[in-house]
Write a structure and sequence with these properties.
12% strand; two-stranded antiparallel ribbon; 2 helices
Length: 66
């Protein structure tokens, strides 16, 4: 019984760590494109952070450059 509970707890912990790390990776791209004043410059286009997060969620910022 204890082994099963420990195994389930370990799997849940790994799942949580995976989610936390993936969220931080998603924000790294936007942090790199930040102009220092809260705006994002991607592919020569300037947008607010909220607009950039929406575009990233739609998959439009997967391969960007300054």
């Amino acid at each position: 019984m204890w082994k099963k509970a420990l195994k389930v707890t370990g799997l849940v912990a790994l799942g949580v760590i995976d989610v936390v790390l993936s969220v931080s990776d998603e924000n790294n791209q936007l942090d790199e494109l930040d102009d220092g004043m809260g705006n994002i410059i991607a592919d020569g286009e300037e947008m607010t952070r909220a607009e950039a997060e929406d575009a990233k969620a739609r998959g439009e910022l997967y391969d960007t450059y300054l």
